[in-house]
């Protein structure tokens, strides 16, 4: 079994990765170019998006960083890195009207008491215009026992200097979703299929993840 921490260049898909739904194997690949995710679902709901790839959090504090190449996204596409559970938040790239923004979206919720239907698809509470085609996304998750578990989201245009985006996200520990939070890499369409992203690097660091990312 490969180490849970350190870099993953997606030469293959190691056992610690899990899909949120049964994947469509015609719309993703791993290998020399890293992980390539084509849009698979037209939706406004992250919980409904197929081919979202998830990775367990390493406690008590760990940091996940992805390098995301977004130049082949289409208008209406959403791609990024989430803290995924029945109450979720994400940082990622939106393309609308030919323009790219980095966005923090929070308030995504599911009904864990009944049929796991989506209650809210969330709201974008912070954003900034970006360009260049490549961005690094980072989520630091503190899952120490007790109340007040928080996730912090940031981004970088060079892989070294990270800018916080949005407010800290308080994670829930309700019993209905006992397996806990996972880091999730996603790419879905809100308008039409055809876009794609490339993720040449996922890096998981124990602690606050200050290591430079290449």
From TrEMBL:
<protein>
    <recommendedName>
        <fullName>Beta-xylosidase C-terminal Concanavalin A-like domain-containing protein</fullName>
    </recommendedName>
</protein>
<dbReference type="InterPro" id="IPR051795">
    <property type="entry name" value="Glycosyl_Hydrlase_43"/>
</dbReference>
<dbReference type="Pfam" id="PF17851">
    <property type="entry name" value="GH43_C2"/>
</dbReference>
<dbReference type="InterPro" id="IPR013320">
    <property type="entry name" value="ConA-like_dom_sf"/>
</dbReference>
<dbReference type="InterPro" id="IPR041542">
    <property type="entry name" value="GH43_C2"/>
</dbReference>
<feature type="domain" description="Beta-xylosidase C-terminal Concanavalin A-like">
    <location>
        <begin position="12"/>
        <end position="190"/>
    </location>
</feature>
């Amino acid at each position: 079994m490969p180490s849970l921490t350190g870099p993953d260049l997606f030469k293959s898909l190691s056992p610690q990765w899990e899909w949120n739904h049964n994947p469509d194997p015609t719309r993703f690949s791993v290998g020399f170019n890293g992980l390539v995710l084509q849009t698979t679902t037209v939706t406004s709901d992250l919980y409904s998006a197929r081919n979202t790839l998830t990775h367990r959090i390493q406690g008590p504090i760990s940091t996940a960083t992805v390098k995301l190449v977004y130049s082949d996204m289409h208008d209406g596409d959403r791609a990024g890195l989430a803290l995924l559970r029945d109450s979720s938040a994400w940082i990622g790239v939106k393309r609308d009207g030919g323009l790219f923004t980095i966005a923090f979206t929070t308030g995504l919720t599911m009904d864990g008491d009944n049929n796991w239907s989506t209650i809210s698809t969330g709201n974008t509470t912070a954003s900034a215009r970006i360009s260049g085609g490549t961005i690094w996304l980072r989520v630091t998750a503190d899952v120490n026992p007790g109340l007040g578990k928080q996730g912090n989201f940031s981004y970088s245009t060079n892989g070294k200097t990270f800018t916080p985006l949005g407010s800290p996200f308080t994670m829930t520990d309700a019993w209905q979703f006992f397996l806990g939070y996972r880091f999730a890499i996603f790419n879905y369409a809100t308008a039409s299929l055809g876009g794609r992203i490339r993720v040449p690097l996922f890096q998981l660091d124990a602690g606050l993840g200050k290591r430079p990312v290449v």
